[in-house]
Amino acid sequence: MKGYMPEFIIALLIYIILELVNSQVYNNVMSLSVVFSFLVFFVILSKHRKTNKKPISVKRKITGHTILFSIVLVCIYFSLPALTFNQAKEIVLNNYDITIKESYNVPLESEWNPFAAKWAYWFEGYNSKQEKISLMVSPDTGKVFLMD
Question: Which of 4, 23, 56, 132 has its CA 20 to 30 A from that of 140?
C-alpha cells in the first residue's frame, strides 16, 4: 500500500471534491462511474510504472502521469451535466407559471452512455389557478417536460 499512497491520496481528493460538487451544485445527478474507474486505473498504473524493472527517467514519469491525469480531466469534463440544479430551477421559474413546493431527482431511462446523467431534476408546485404542476428537466439537454 505504501507505493500507492501519493497517487491514492490524489485520486481520493479528486473523488471527494467531485462528490461535493455533485451534491452541492448538481443535486447528485452527475454520473461519476467513468471518472471513478479512471481514478482507480490512474492509481494502479502509477504503481505498475514504479515497480517496472526498467529505469524510468523523470521526464517519462512526469509525461506518463500527465497523460493519465489528462484522461481523468477529460472524463470529468464529459461527465458534467449541462445544467446545474439552480439553472434548471431558474428555467422552470422563468418559463412556467409555477410556485415550486417540492423538488427532487427522478431516474432516467436512456441509451447506454456512461457520461450521461442517470437522473433528472423534478419540480412540483402550483400555478396561479392552484392547479398542481409537475415538471421534469433533463440535466444534459435542458429540455423541460410537463408531466401529468
Answer: 132
Whole-Å CA distances, 35 to 82, 92, 130: 17, 30, 44
- Contact present, 122 and 103 (Cβ < 8 Å): yes
Cα dihedral sign, 10-15-21-23: negative
Question: How far apart, in Å, are the Cα atoms of 38 and each of 11, 28, 69, 75?
Answer: 9, 20, 9, 8
Q: Please give the Cα distance from 42 to 45 (Å, whole number).
A: 5
Nearest 5°: the CA angle 41, 43, 48 is: 90
pLDDT at 17 over 90: yes
Q: What does the alpha-carbon distance between residue 136 and residue 10 come to, in Å, rounded to a whole number?
A: 36
Confidence of residue 50 (pLDDT cuts 50, 70, 90): low
52 — pLDDT class (breaks 50, 70, 90)? low
